Amino acid sequence: MDRQQFETWVKAIGAAWVNRDPQAAANLFTADATYQENPFEPPLQGRPAIAKYWGDVSTQTDIEFHYEILEVTAETGFAHWSVELTRIPSGKKVKLDGIFAASFHPGENRCYAFREWWARQEGPSNRRVALITGASRGLGVTLATCLAGQDYDLILTARGGEALAETAEQLRQYGTTIIPIAGDVAEPAHHRRLLETIQSLGRLDVLVNNASELGPSPLPSLADYPLTALRHVLEINVIAPLALTQMALPLLKANHGLIVNISSDAALGGYQGWGGYGASKAALDLLSRTLAHELEEAGVGVVSVDPGDMRTTMHQQAFPGEDISDRPEPNVTLPFWMWLFGQKVTDISGQRFQAQAEQWEVAR
Fold this sequence. Notes:
39% of the residues are buried. Strand 7, helix 4 (138-149) and strand 8 (153-158) form a beta-alpha-beta unit. The chain is an alpha/beta fold and 364 residues long. The protein has helices at 3-18, 22-26, 47-54, 138-149, 161-171, 188-201, 227-254, 266-269, 275-294, 313-318, 334-340, 345-348; strands at 29-36, 44-45, 60-72, 76-87, 93-103, 111-122, 129-133, 153-158, 178-182, 206-209, 258-262, 301-306, 352-354. Helix 7 (227-254) runs parallel beside helix 9 (275-294). The chain is globular. The protein has 2 domains: 3-122, Nuclear Transport Factor 2, Chain: A (Roll); 129-354, NAD(P)-binding Rossmann-like Domain (Rossmann fold, 3-Layer(aba) Sandwich), CATH 3.40.50.720.
């Protein structure tokens, strides 16, 4: 499976949708294929079941299908798609936005295993607002792409102004408001500027504390850890997320919003060399659980998410001079974010998730 072959398959499934042809869609799968809408529902089995499921396209018109190829491996392709359509006979406008993973046997052009995650908006958009820190690259861009695709207005912040502006420009294709504000999340003056921007938009539904500081590279043992550097790690990874949470709480309470704190397996592992960073993320996990209890009555959710190993600049800094090409790109976490932001905040609050897990359960 190469990128061109996968893109041909994606175009074909999009054409089947636009042409309202369930059988054409089913013919893109092997006779015994599995088709799973999300990780918690039993999968459909075989072409007849897939064709029956796709029969819903007969109730749709004015269908527009868009896609973006995210990643292609030897066996599996990942794509981000969106569809706009009109329901028959209600005339209601609908926007669907999702991620799917399609797997192929070597030499086959039909999919044998399909997993999909998607969200739906019907009628006029009551556009939500999210603030994402560390949003200029890596996981921050993945999070911003996910939320922009779900029709969020975004406030993005990071220290690198040029990279942040480039990210914002790329995201404007989704048609939502994208506001980049470069600055240091440890600075109170920057907090005030972020708050003024949130207030200008009138609401806040999601706060993602993604900005993180690794610390010295190569990673030192705790016995040799420079205390000044450790204080900075704690300032960025623990104090700044709490400060931003305190700043944003009135608007989050007004909209029963969600706070997402980005953690790490280093918070649990006790890995050699990771003591400073791991301690900061362990503290952030405890902060998240405590806030979840304290904000329960206010209807504000708080979760902690370990995104797993990824091919990012920070991960490379942790392994200077080593080849980390075997790690997946941050886009591998997109199915999780699609699922998370579709949940009721009170159902998930207080939990710690692993974004690359097979199923999303509390990680203890």
